[in-house]
Design goal:
With 770 residues, the protein is an alpha/beta fold. It is 40% helix and 12% strand. It contains 26 helices and 21 strands. It has a seven-stranded parallel beta sheet. Strands 16-18-19-20-21 form a five-stranded parallel beta sheet. The chain starts with 19 loop residues before the first helix and ends with a helix.
């Protein structure tokens, strides 16, 4: 059996250095290109990735290059590979039962009355995955050989790559019971049925030229899944016993990123596999285990979650300690896939050179892995210069101006600043807003049209004067406000045409941040974001949103929401400094937002939304760490909003929040109204809201904006009636799941019309005339 490479990565960005895959996929969806053209573009991207990784020092023929490409999502890839798609899509299968690319995208995005798979966050990252639906009726079979074809494609080009697939335990642990499943059904109960398909896949991969296969099993590190830890351990024991015993298979490398393995390491140590991946950024080097003898330990010592150059000397020390266990060979790797970071910091020609010297994007992290692998092979002295250079950059970062500003850090925050008056008093004061039952609103953004993007690009290139650009934005706001008035919404928004991104916009106006030109990171499917870099202490030099909010309010007698992004989300969707506690950084952002709220109130804005869609996202995977996180995250929100007057209605918005998991934290935020995504899960969240006795205002979403589908009036009405049946009318708001930035105007307007009509019907039945 071929030895595991001395250095590797768990995965690489797959959207392309200039988002080539995004553009190709969206052109295919729009009918501008055909499947053959899309497949060609994807093959070119895979070829470019292999060539680039070889150039950076990974080997062509030693399995160090992962085959981790995906057209949309790695969990969807695994589900489709084993044939696990809901029965509502069965007619899309080919005659032989296989699932082609067209069906794959339909499962992801929905079509007509067929809802897509639900979407939620991948562990504690900002990546979204599609949730498989599995029941007793699910028929498993090898329904897609895309991964096999990619391995063969690499072999034809002279590469021996390592195919990567989500492992069977994680696939089932992340799945939800299908609509056809009986109450209480556990998808993990189908493990024995799916294992033969994985075994067949392993045989096909070996035949295609794979010497190693990577099974990603991050479920093994999490204590936050609705699956008992002991059940996960039993499942992985059974799974690896079957796959390890397969006669035809590559060597098996089980990667368990995102946190420490803990006791589950004992299970992997005893399993008939050849290599185990350990996240040594989030976890520590384990104690010696006799059962590890002969197994390769792959030390994930380079942070795949963040973009800092980091302490390379400390990373190498961890590998040396790992080798001292004497279990078997040791390899250097990243802690997670590099899909969470941009491609190459050398592309960022507009960033300050000093800041650049502190950074490592995907390509630089590959270089770090190659350096550490050389140190393992040749000794510390062979890489001493690289270790010293990284240490010097780290020391420079600590002492650079702006990283630590005593004036900002010295703000004396009192306990009184974290609280408003009681909710009952605020609810009474806010009656002056004179809102109807089931108030209709949107989450904030309206479609970012090609005209908006072009005008922004012209302004940034200096081709459009600032005054002309402002006039353009005001015309956009005019149209958005007029549209909402015509549709009949009750609380309006200005549409956010001035914002490229809900975090980057604030980063551009706060001290302590930098923004990139090409730092794209996949969020879900074809969508990508450019996380800002929070490198120093944060402060607000001037008001940020006030002029746009007050202009929009001047256009209507209806209330217009001021729109802010909350401190936790600004941290979650940025690359955040790692040299001080996150709670301290969050409070700095909160103080800046607190000043913004004060200025909005002074300008006459009576409703202010402070979005926290990432609150659940950062929840630590280990239960012991969750209380501390929830404490500082909630306090930062309350610090931002604690100065608002009783009559000012504070809204917040949460994405994929699994309401029941963080209900106490949501209650502790003490927002007057909380909107939450609910449409794609078909309003399941209202049962949690009712069960936990949540009594503040709440807007469970009725329109899934992550799909191009236009929900019918009847579909929205059914969702609303479920909400009205479960919750008191005084609490309920009506809104889409999320902002409308990514949608087109035609589908947006029709969807909103249907929402308004559905709300009218429900109001007629449930609202008692005055």
């Amino acid at each position: 059996m071929t030895a595991f490479p001395a250095g590797t990565i768990l995965g690489y960005p797959r959207i392309g250095r200039r988002r080539e895959l995004k553009k190709a996929v969206e052109a295919f969806w729009a009918g501008r290109t055909d499947q053959a053209e899309l497949e060609r573009t994807a093959a070119e991207l895979r070829a470019a990735t292999r060539a680039r990784l070889t150039e950076l020092g990974l080997g062509r023929d030693d399995s160090s290059i992962p085959e981790s490409f995906s057209f949309y999502d790695q969990v969807l890839d695994a589900a489709v590979t084993v044939g696990a798609i809901p029965t509502r899509f069965d007619d899309l299968r080919d005659a032989d039962g296989s699932i082609g690319l067209g069906a794959y995208f339909t499962v992801a995005r929905g079509e007509g009355e067929r809802a897509p798979l639900e979407m939620t966050k991948w562990f504690d990252s900002n990546y979204h995955y599609l949730v498989p639906e599995i029941g007793p009726e699910t028929v498993f079979s090898l329904a897609s050989e895309h991964l096999v074809e990619q391995v063969a494609e690499a072999a034809d080009a002279g590469y021996v790559t390592r195919p990567v697939i989500v492992g069977p335990v994680t696939l089932l642990a992340l799945a939800k019971a299908s609509d056809d499943a009986p109450e209480g059904f556990d998808p993990l109960s189908r493990l024995d049925d799916v294992l033969p398909v994985y075994a067949e896949l392993l045989a096909r991969l070996q035949a295609a030229g794979a010497q190693w296969v990577q099974l990603d099993e991050p479920a093994l590190v999490s204590e936050s899944l609705p699956v008992d830890v002991a059940a996960l351990a039993d499942a992985v024991t059974r799974a690896l016993a079957v796959l390890g015993a397969a006669e035809q298979r590559p060597a098996i490398f089980v990667a368990a990123p995102y946190a420490a393995l803990g006791a589950t390491l004992d299970v992997l140590a005893a399993a008939p596999i050849e290599a185990i991946g350990l996240d040594l950024v989030r976890g520590e080097v384990p104690a010696a285990l006799p059962a590890l003898e002969g197994k390769t330990l792959v030390g994930g010592v380079i942070d795949g979650h963040n973009i800092w150059r980091g302490d390379l000397d400390a990373a190498f020390a961890k590998l040396e300690t790992l080798r001292e266990l004497g279990a078997g060979p040791v390899a250097a790797s990243t802690s997670t896939s590099l899909l969470h970071v941009p491609h190459d910091v050398d592309d960022e020609t507009a960033l300050d050179e000093r800041l650049v010297s502190w950074l490592a994007f995907a390509d630089q992290k590959v270089g770090q892995v190659v350096t550490l692998a050389a140190g393992l092979a040749e000794g510390r002295d062979a890489i001493a210069d690289a270790l010293d250079a990284a240490s010097a950059a780290l020391a420079d970062r600590r002492s650079a101006p702006g990283v630590r500003d005593g004036a900002v850090r010295g703000h004396a925050v009192t306990e009184e600043e974290f609280s408003r008056v009681a909710y009952e008093e605020r609810e009474s004061a806010q009656q002056a807003l004179n809102l109807p039952a089931l108030p209709l609103t949107t989450i904030g953004s309206f479609p970012q049209t090609g005209d908006i993007r072009r005008a922004r690009a012209q302004f940034l290139r200096g081709e459009l004067p600032a005054d002309d650009y402002d006039d353009f934005l005001r015309r956009e706001i005019d149209q958005v406000v007029a549209l909402q008035e015509e549709l009949g919404l009750d609380v309006l928004v200005h549409g956010e045409p001035e914002r490229n991104d809900m975090v980057q916009y604030f980063a551009e106006h706060l001290d302590g941040f930098a923004v990139t030109q090409h730092g794209w990171v996949q969020s879900y499917g074809s969508r990508a974001t450019r996380p800002s870099i929070l490198w120093g202490d944060v402060s607000r030099p001037a008001p940020i949103t006030v002029s746009w909010a007050t202009y929009a309010q001047s256009l209507s007698v209806k209330p217009v929401k001021g729109m802010l992004t909350g401190p936790v989300t600004i941290l979650a969707w940025s690359f955040v400094r790692d040299d001080q506690p996150l709670g301290e950084t969050a409070n700095q952002v909160a103080l800046a937002l607190r000043d913004e709220i004060t200025d909005l109130e002074a300008a006459g804005i009576a409703i202010i939304q402070v979005d926290e869609p990432a609150l659940r996202e950062l929840l630590p995977l280990k239960i012991a760490d969750q209380a501390s996180y929830l404490d500082w995250s909630v306090r930062s929100f309350r610090l931002a909003t604690g100065g608002a007057a009783p009559g000012t209605q504070i809204h917040t918005h949460l994405c994929y929040s699994e309401f029941g998991v963080v209900i106490d934290a949501i209650r502790a935020l003490d927002a007057d109204v909380t909107s939450i995504e609910a449409a794609r899960s078909r309003m399941e969240v209202v049962a949690d809201i009712a069960r936990f006795g949540f009594d503040h205002g709440v807007g469970p979403g009725v329109y899934d904006i992550h799909s191009p589908r236009v929900p019918s009036v009847e579909e929205v009405e059914a969702l609303l009636r479920r909400a009205v049946d479960e919750l008191p009318l005084r609490q309920l708001w009506v809104n889409p799941d999320c902002g409308l930035k990514t949608r087109a105007y035609e589908e947006t307007v029709q969807s909103l019309r249907n929402i308004v009509e559905a709300t009218r019907r429900v109001r007629e039945d449930v609202v008692v005339p005055a």
